[in-house]
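Why does residue order matter? Because the sequence determines the fold. Keep that principle in mind as you read this record.
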Amino acid sequence: MRTTRVIIGLSVAAALFAAGCGTTEEAGGGEPAANSGDPVTVTDSRGKEIKLDAPARRVAATEWNGVEHLVSLGVMPVAVSDIKGYEQWSSAAPLDDTPTDIGTRGEPSIDTLGALDLDLVIVTDSLTEGALEQIEAKIPVLLIKGNDAKDSIGTMFETLDMIATATGTEDKAAQLKSDFDAKLAEGKAEVDKLGATGEKVAFSDAYADAGTVSIRPFAKGSLVADVFERIGLENAWTMEGDPAYGLAQADVEGLTQLGDVRFWYMANDGEGDPYTDVLADNAIWQNLPFVKSGKVHRFPDSLWMFGGPLSMEQYVDAAIDALKA
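Structure:
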């Protein structure tokens, strides 16, 4: 979905909603079980304390990293924005058939949210003007960051812990973090074994408009690039990305600044592949060193670039496969 990628590429923080959650079975459908457990207080990204009578059981999420965090914690959200888009772009934490679709990520249906008997809504600041206040008037709201390029992996864990506290799933969060650290160690060892430690990688995605390709470099501070660095690879992009997602902007001429690096990218069959669909016959593209040397590699579909630990583990595996290709 081009709209999704353009929005994030312009550094608009992704909108996240979450409404009361509990176990996967309880949150997804049927009659909600009564909340149990001690009262919960969690401080969100605004520095605001959110007080709940018990861990949230029924949750709606509008941004897909929030959705992934919930599902990975064992909490199936009651509602999700743009379910079709989530299923197209994210495969690490699949939804079952119970969530209700609440519209777009930037402008979810307030009426639908209000009718779902939610305990909590998790949002970021990319909602349309006034939406946060409308939701917060009816349902507790937890504001989380989409990302922070100063510490993308730390922000990912901070968000995971925040949602885990709100839903009473702290033990599961600890296991996810431990598994992620183990995956990084495994990936780093494999990169070293392949003799690829220190190799330069330029990761990107792109979109086409009227035959013009806009490229989005994942610069330092972007989550995927930072994960690659943790396993021993070097980010080939030298430009500065935006302060939230670490994303920059480039065109095909800008690619001439890269040497004979590994050029990896993300695309999706549902949206098309600008590199092969538009640039295949472009003279500049054809003469780039990494194109001529065969170092261009498209990653598998449905690896969400802005997800949680499970998506990032997929990127570690995909990076190893690319090195072996």
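The chain has two domains: 2-178, 184-324.
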